[in-house]
Write a structure and sequence with these properties.
With 59 residues, the protein is of the alpha+beta class. 12% of the residues lie in helices and 14% in strands. The protein has a domain of 34 residues.
Length: 59
């Protein structure tokens, strides 16, 4: 089994783990009510998805 010859510094460890950072989620605009929502999901504000009324939400 391979054993490291020297201890990796915290800087080297940070470079290795740099891609593990939390990324912000992309939100799209609803064409019906212009509210922010996740892509490929029903709009929580008006209940529409791809120009169809999926859920009837009462105001």
């Amino acid at each position: 089994m391979a054993v490291p010859k020297r201890k990796h510094s915290t800087h080297r460890k940070g470079i290795r783990r740099s891609h593990l950072a939390i990324k912000s989620t992309y939100t799209g605009k609803c064409p019906k009510c212009s509210a922010d929502h996740l892509p490929h999901t029903i709009c929580g504000n008006c209940g529409h998805y791809r120009d169809e009324n999926v859920i009837n939400l009462e105001d």
